[in-house]
Amino acid sequence: MTARRAPLEGIRVADFTWVWAGPFCTLQLAHLGAEVIRVETATRVCVTRMLPPFAEFKPGKNRSGYFNQFNQGKKSVTLDMKQPDALAVAKRLCESSDIVVENFAAGVMDRMGLGYEVLRALRPDVIMIALSGYGASGPDHDKVSYGPAQVPLSGMSALTGYRGFPPMHVGVSYGDPTGGLHGAVAVLAALLHRAKTGQGQYIDLSQWETSMAVLPEGLLAQTMNGASPERDGNRDPHMAPHGVFRTGGGDDRWVAIAIEDDAAWRRCTEIMGQPELAADARFATVVARKQHEDALEEVVTAWTMTHEPGDVTARLQAAGIPAFTVATNHDLADDPHLAARGYFVELEHPEVGVRKHAGVPWTMSASDSRVRRAAPCLGADTDQVLRDVCGYDDATIARLRDAKVLA
Amino acid sequence: MAGALDGLRVLEIGDLVGASYATKMLADLGADVVKIERPGRGDRSRQRGPFPGGTSHPEKSGLFLYLNTNKRGITLDLTSSRGHEVLDRLVRDADLLVHEVHPTDMAAHGLDWERLSAINPQLVMTSIAPFGMRGPHAAYRGSDVVTWSAGGIAQLNGDPQHPELPPLKAFGDQSGFQAGLNAAIPSLAALFARIGSGHGEHIEVSTQESIAAILELTFEYWPYCGLVASRLGAKPIQPLCFMECRDGWIFICCVEEHQWRAFVEIMGNPEWAEMELFENRLARGANFDALQVFLQEWCATQSVQELYDAAQARRVPFAPVSTMGDLVASPHLQARGFFATIDHPVAGAVTMPGAPWRMSATPWTLRRPAPCLGQHNAEVLGAIGLDASVLAAEGLL
Question: So what's the pLDDT on residue B236?
Answer without folding.
Answer: 80
